[in-house]
């Protein structure tokens, strides 16, 4: 299982599947289709049935049940794309066997080092086999690790028919990182009663709470005049943008928040005197506070329009997903079974809220309750991303364990 996971994972991460929110087609980048086609071939080769890929790059497949018991159909999902935060092109995974502790040189030419001084959680991985980047790209464990783990679990079940299980459905989806993963996902065609995304981080993560999320795009318009004759004429759009940002609570930003605390995140700003564009992520676990955050931005925008002119500021806020806890709590048995399986494998479940979202956030509101399982990775979305192969094996064992447990509990 270990070698199979390494081979699958390192194959997947070499395909550039970074999504692009500026591209409205689905999937937003051609590399996602490249990986999807490869997965279709692999699913067929290992013996999965009903293997399909639609025009939007959604891959689905079935492992038929091999038990006479009445077992619910369970789904497992992972996403094809990698994050937009850092380059995902020409990923060169490096394997560190039996990590002995201390610094891991990623790129000697660039003097890029993965060090426990900067990332003390590395101390937990002494003796593990790690897969890292070469310092120039992200790794793509989010979520190609999840894909590798699901694929390996399915192959294992097919190779071991003595393990009894109900019908299993798997799906690999595009554009999760830009919030569009479930937009064209056919829940009815998937046909699962509930599902799990395999899209979490370190060992033991088991998540059923996510942010309520929205994106805000702001365009500030100015009037550019030669600065020598600008008095009473110039309107500096960059200063309008600064004024807008200055009215948001300084402490309610990602770098100052944790746990259940929400935030406003200025994710990009570009501009000059004539025009400035800003983009914000709005996040909160509490639905009422989430709505209050959006209302605050609307209020600031109205105030600045009154001050500078109605055409000088455009605010567009769009909801992205909601806290999946509301939909999963009535179905907590699926979380409890996952926790039981982890404990039986010697893994202590870590039930913390996702300070982000997964496809499960939207799928749960589409009628498919979908909590999130760990993959084993750390430092997602950057050059210092790495993953423990040992914990990838454990993630695969959790998938298999969940499938077995539901069969064991079912009535004949």
TrEMBL record:
It comes from the Bacteria. InterPro entries: ArgE/DapE_CS, Bact_exopeptidase_dim_dom, Peptidase_M20, Peptidase_M20_dimer, Peptidase_M20B. The active site is at residues 81, 176. Zn(2+) 2 binds at residues 142, 177, 381. Its EC number is 3.4.11.4. It is an enzyme of class 3 (hydrolase). Belongs to the peptidase M20B family. HAMAP family: Aminopeptidase_M20 (MF_00550). Cleaves the N-terminal amino acid of tripeptides. This is Peptidase T. The gene is pepT.
């Amino acid at each position: 299982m270990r070698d199979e996971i390494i081979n699958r994972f390192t194959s997947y991460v070499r395909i550039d599947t970074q999504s692009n929110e500026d591209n409205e087609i689905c999937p937003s980048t051609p590399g996602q289709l490249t990986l999807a086609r490869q997965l279709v071939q692999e699913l067929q080769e290992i013996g999965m049935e009903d293997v399909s890929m639609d025009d939007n790059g959604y891959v689905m497949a079935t492992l038929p049940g091999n038990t006479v018991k009445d077992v619910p159909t369970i789904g497992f999902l992972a996403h094809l794309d990698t994050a937009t935060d850092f380059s995902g092109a020409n990923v060169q995974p490096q394997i560190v066997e039996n990590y002995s502790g201390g610094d891991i040189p990623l790129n000697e030419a660039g003097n890029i080092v993965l060090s426990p001084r900067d990332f003390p959680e590395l101390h937990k991985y002494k003796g593990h086999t790690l897969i890292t980047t070469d310092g120039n790209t992200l790794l793509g464990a989010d979520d190609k690790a999840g894909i590798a783990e699901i694929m390996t679990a399915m192959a294992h079940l097919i190779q071991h028919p003595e393990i009894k299980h109900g019908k299993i459905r798997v799906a690999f989806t595009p554009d999760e990182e830009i919030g569009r993963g479930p937009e064209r996902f056919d829940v009815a065609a998937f046909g699962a009663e509930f599902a799990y995304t395999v899209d979490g981080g370190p060992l033991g993560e088991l998540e059923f709470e996510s942010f309520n999320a929205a994106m805000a795009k702001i365009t500030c318009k100015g009037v550019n005049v030669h600065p020598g004759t600008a008095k009473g004429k110039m309107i500096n759009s960059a200063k309008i943008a600064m004024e807008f940002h200055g009215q948001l609570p300084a402490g309610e930003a990602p770098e100052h928040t944790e746990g259940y605390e929400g935030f406003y995140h200025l994710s990009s700003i570009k501009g000059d005197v004539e025009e400035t564009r800003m983009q914000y992520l709005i996040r909160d676990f509490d639905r009422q506070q989430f709505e209050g955050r959006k209302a605050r931005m609307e209020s600031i925008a109205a105030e600045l329009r009154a001050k500078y002119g109605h055409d000088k500021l455009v605010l567009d806020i769009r909801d992205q997903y909601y806290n999946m806890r509301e939909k999963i709590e009535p179905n907590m048995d699926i979380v409890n079974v996952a926790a039981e399986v982890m404990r039986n494998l010697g893994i202590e479940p870590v039930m913390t809220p996702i300070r982000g979202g997964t496809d499960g956030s939207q799928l749960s509101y589409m009628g498919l309750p979908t909590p999130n399982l760990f993959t084993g990775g750390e430092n997602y979305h950057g050059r210092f991303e790495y993953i423990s192969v040992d914990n990838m094996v454990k993630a695969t064992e959790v998938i298999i364990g969940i499938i077995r447990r539901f069969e064991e509990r079912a009535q004949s």
